Amino acid sequence: GAVVSQHPSWVICKSGTSVKIECRSLDFQATTMFWYRQFPKQSLMLMATSNEGSKATYEQGVEKDKFLINHASLTLSTLTVTSAHPEDSSFYICSARGTSGRSDTQYFGPGTRLTVL
Amino acid sequence: KQEVTQIPAALSVPEGENLVLNCSFTDSAIYNLQWFRQDPGKGLTSLLLIQSSQREQTSGRLNASLDKSSGRSTLYIAASQPGDSATYLCAAYLMDSNYQLIWGAGTKLIIKP
Description:
heterodimer; A: seven-stranded mixed sheet; B: six-stranded mixed sheet
């Protein structure tokens, strides 16, 4: 139980285009989802926290207009990187906290590698 | 502000040795602590979750301990194997409404055959 999927697993796009990454909780309802990014050889950096049905809370230094987060249902959150540039190339990981199983822990997706040319 | 530190940043040991990875946190008011493994270019694999009321958890050759009073957690790996080579991350859960995680920078472990 408590499986989180991400799609796509990797994406390559041209500079200036927008990319949408999906995060789904497959067997539980995720009341809270988290989006992280990870640069090579660095740890995870929390970008934003979203509770279902409300606006995401962004961490300091993360541009909310550039990284659009939608958590419209209890099983799906999306991160859209708008007008992507090479410096946005990174590994993006989502996690979910739900109402079943352990509600006090996060379950992680496998990550999405974004490369912006 | 909670900070999580992992020492050493990198460790290389011969196969078969027992080893300990360290994780320290500045604020003892954490909820749970979790150890993860990450292979190069891959996502996270949860290894062990220690609840705030527990002192240790074991899974196979892995044993994780938690001492909240001293702000320390250790991950013990017995009889290390080349397949254990990976980056090991510890993360502490804050006692906030979202159970936010604070991450260590990780220890890169290399097991030499």
